[in-house]
Amino acid sequence: VNPIYDRMGTTIFQAMNDLARQHDAINLGQGFPDDNGPQDLRQAAADALMNGWNQYPPMTGIPEVRQALARHEKRFYGLDLDWTAETLITSGATEALICAILSLIDTGDEVVMFQPMYDAYVPMVQRAGGVPRIVTLRPPQWTLNRDDLARAFGPKTKAVILNNPLNPTGKVFSPAELALIAEFVEASDAYVISDEVYEHLVYDGLRHVPFNTLPGMFERTVKISSAGKMFSLTGWKIGLITGQADLLAPVIKAHQFLTFTTPPNLQAAVAVGLDKEDGYFDGLAQRMQAGRDHLVAGFRRMGIATHDCAGTYFVNIDIGSTGFNGDDVAFCRHLTEEARVTAIPVSAFCHETPITDTARFCFCKSTATLDAALDRMERHF
Ligand code: PMP
Ligand code: GLN
């Protein structure tokens, strides 16, 4: 019998969603808002659907959304992009990631990655033949350490996968940390796949710094964003890539054989979204920050310690502070079965020497949902 290489595990999101469903738990695991997203964007998508955008659109994305993406990068970050060669629209940030990985990583190439990290990175890198070199960030502050970085970089370093703001930790890398990474990138002549899907979800008055705005980094960086996160429409799966033309050319080649195109009506609506006024983006961050504050305050009332969080949809708790005796996987199972609230064990976001005392909770939910989850946990602990 020909062997089947079933090397990829089941994603933690599938596993926890199933468990949550079985126990009718409030699901603060997988990150998605529990509202329907902006009405004007949904209307724009419906209009585009009814008025003709239903056949294959251009391979690299419809001009309207690519131009709007270039305007977005100019407005927020002062970058001047040639939309015809330096933008690409994909089917989600997920496709953007695999396009970038397949075009930049070859067999034996080492890839520096920061854990805990989004669970798709390692399987994608390994299937491309790459070798993960892991830098671990530790709670409660998730600070980046120069010595750890120096140990991860080497003569075979081909690329870095950076996720800023960082899922699952909620960490926003400081300008000094970004400069430190850039120093090593420059010295190793490496590339950066910069997953910035949470670029507009940054709190406490902090400002998002795209990695490609650091000196010398534009030519080395493939920046990836997601309309799903920008517009609270996670099911839409529209990925937004920007990068210098020569670097983007092979990424576009990967895209042509993966999906070739992305639903045009959704692209048309995202074009409208990217031109939304600053107030929309500020309001989004304010609402998410309020969700974070609400959930953190609830944990504090219960005496549960939370780790630093300045961005994303997620905040993490120290499991030890709940009095639970066991690791994160046991805790998340117990919480789902007994308190009927679902969280994600952070070890699932680790590749080696996992962090096993931390659980991730999603706060991009209505106050009513967060209160109901807090109420269940308060009764339980
Ligand atoms: N990267 C990170 C860090 C994410 O959290 C997500 C959301 N699942 C993605 C990529 C994928 O985004 P998309 O849904 O646009 O494929
Ligand atoms: N980004 C979301 C999360 O981390 C969704 C992940 C997924 O559905 N694969 O929860």
Describe this structure in words.
Pfam families: Aminotran_1_2. Keywords: Aminotransferase, Pyridoxal phosphate, Transferase. Residues 24-376 form the Aminotransferase class I/classII large domain. The chain is of the alpha/beta class and 381 residues long. It has 2 domains: 12-37 and 279-380, Aspartate Aminotransferase, domain 1; 39-276, 3-Layer(aba) Sandwich (Aspartate Aminotransferase, domain 2). Helix content is 43%, strand content 14%. The strands form 3 sheets. It has a 7-stranded mixed beta sheet with strand order 2-8-7-6-5-3-4, with helices on both faces. It has a 3-stranded antiparallel beta sheet with strand order 9-12-11. A two-stranded parallel ribbon has the order 1-10. Helix 3 (63-77) runs parallel beside helix 11.
Question: What fold name goes in the CATH topology slot of the largest domain?
Answer: Aspartate Aminotransferase, domain 2
Largest sheet: 7 strands, mixed
Mean pLDDT: 97
Q: Give the CATH architecture of the largest domain.
A: 3-Layer(aba) Sandwich
CATH superfamily of the largest domain: Type I PLP-dependent aspartate aminotransferase-like (Major domain)
- What structural category arises from helix and sheet content? alpha/beta
Distance between the termini: 52 Å
Helix percentage range: 40-55%
Shape annotation: globular
Q: How many distinct beta strands? A: 12
Q: Count every helix, treating DSSP H or I runs of 4 or more residues as helices.
A: 14
Element pattern in H and E: HEHHHEHEHEHEHEEHEHHHEHEEEH
Number of domains: 2
CATH class of the largest domain: Alpha Beta
Radius of gyration from CA coordinates: 20 Å
Low-confidence stretches: none
Protein name: Aminotransferase
Keywords: Aminotransferase, Pyridoxal phosphate, Transferase
Domain Aminotransferase class I/classII large: 24-376
Cofactor: pyridoxal 5'-phosphate
